[in-house]
Design goal:
The chain is built from 14 helices and 17 strands. With 427 residues, the chain is α/β, with parallel strands linked by helices. 47% of the residues are buried. The structure holds alpha-D-galactopyranose.
């Protein structure tokens, strides 16, 4: 197969097939921090006070997000995942935070987060119990939505454990309505399709009308095989899921695990590049109190974040496999294009990829301007359809580029030059 070019899904996806949930939120992919992948369900604060699920953890995250440039880079939501509540509801049937780990309660925590100019996310479950066995919201949607609104929570991640799959849609839609009824703007993050896929193809029109983002596939782990499996799943279902993404509603391939233990730096760059191409929520799950400077720089890279947050709001997709390279492309505003070229050969060293093999390279006719963002920032200058440019990517690494067509400007320039010439020859 050497040299073979397999072109996939060359026809550009058109805009979202359905209206987004009309709550004015998630107009761009959500950015923030979510505790699950890094901190999981560590509830023993006596043994591990720095890392247990407690109000202290979120307050420290908020502090560091402000101090270390995360907020400025766009990371806004500090999100609680599973294991925060008490095992029992209160006398009025309301959820309550574990009193030992959250002595101030969630409202006070929300006030603290808001005082830092950040937003607070919380977690609940559409079924009888959360995935870790805490009280679920089934039978309590309105009560729980109102409780979260009273606490001035800004985002709800609504999981799908312990629920009859035939009732998932109804449950997710009813919670969406309950949130709306509170009158508070609460971003609604769902896992509806993830729990439905084993039984039937989810209805993405309904999902987009109900949720601000939605998980489709398995939980991310701190490993390259996990990140790769998410990319593979996404590419092999792109015809179904890509059209549903757009301003107000996004496919969620799960958290960024950059800055943890399992990914090499090249693999971290691949995750960041591809999450930007996929218009994915950028919810990191790491420990920004103690993170390697290179990972921090990558997560705060303004040029990658600009791709993620591009106002056109279109999700990118895999367009080719060439040798063991994968090409992913995302249409950007002003007719620009983001291209990710991922080297999937996990042996040997850096390999070169001839850029004109990218299917979307046709926007370089007659000319385009190319900027490389990863692995290093580099202006690659003006290129043509026949460009001999070769870009290099390390094993399991990715080169990320943006391409700006200059055809119209160029034509205008030629026209102007022509006009001037004519004026002088007519003299
Ligand atoms: C599920 C979700 C994860 C996380 C855990 C918590 O597995 O998919 O993202 O919320 O539950 O128990």
């Amino acid at each position: 197969m050497r040299g073979a070019v397999v072109l996939l899904g060359l026809v550009g996806f058109i805009g979202p097939a359905a209206e987004a949930l009309d709550n004015g939120l998630a107009l761009r992919p959500t950015m923030g921090w979510l505790h699950w992948e890094r901190f999981m369900c560590q509830i023993d604060c006596d043994r591990d006070p720095d890392n247990c699920i407690s109000e202290r953890l979120y307050m420290q995250m908020a502090d560091v997000m402000v101090k270390e440039g995360w907020k400025e880079a766009g990371y806004e939501y500090v999100c609680i995942d599973d294991c925060w509540p008490s095992r029992q509801r209160d006398a009025q049937g309301r959820l309550q935070a574990d009193p030992k780990r959250f002595p101030g309660g969630i409202k006070k925590l929300a006030d603290y987060i808001h005082s830092k100019g950040l937003k607070l996310g919380i977690y609940a479950d559409v079924g009888k119990k959360t995935c870790a066995g805490y009280p679920g919201s089934l039978g309590y949607y309105e009560t729980d939505a109102q409780t979260f609104a009273d606490w001035t929570v800004d985002l709800l991640k609504f999981d799908g454990c312990y629920m009859d799959w035939t009732l998932l849609g109804e449950g997710y839609m009813n919670m969406s309505k309950a949130l709306n009824k509170t009158g508070r703007s609460i971003l609604y993050s769902c896992e509806w399709p993830l729990y439905e896929w084993p039984f039937k193809q989810p209805n993405y029109t309904a999902i987009r009308e109900t949720c601000n983002h939605w998980r489709n596939f398995n939980d991310v782990y701190d490993s390259w095989s996990s990140v790769k499996s998410i990319l593979d799943w996404t590419a092999s279902h792109q015809d179904v899921i890509v059209p549903s993404a757009g301003s107000g509603g996004w496919n969620d391939p799960d958290m960024l695990v950059i800055g943890n233990f399992g990914l090499s730096h090249d693999q971290q760059e691949s995750q960041m590049a591809l999450w930007a191409i996929m218009a994915a929520p950028l919810l990191m799950s790491n420990d920004p109190r103690d993170i390697c400077p290179r990972s921090k720089e990558l997560l705060q890279n303004r040029r990658i974040i600009d791709i993620s947050q591009d106002p056109l709001g279109k999700q990118g997709y895999r367009t080719a496999k060439v040798d063991s390279f994968e090409v992913w492309e995302r249409p950007l505003s002003q007719n620009r294009l983001a291209i990710a070229v991922m080297n999937q050969q996990e042996i040997g060293g850096a390999r070169g990829f001839v850029i004109r093999a990218v299917p979307g390279w046709k926007i370089c006719d007659p000319l385009c301007n190319v900027t490389q963002i990863l692995p290093q920032y580099k202006e690659l200058g003006v290129q043509t359809p026949k460009s001999k440019l070769v870009i290099s990517a390390n094993p399991s690494g990715t080169a990320l580029l943006t391409v700006t067509p200059i055809s119209s400007n160029f034509r205008r320039m030629l026209y102007r030059q022509d006009a001037i010439k004519q004026k002088y020859t007519n003299l």
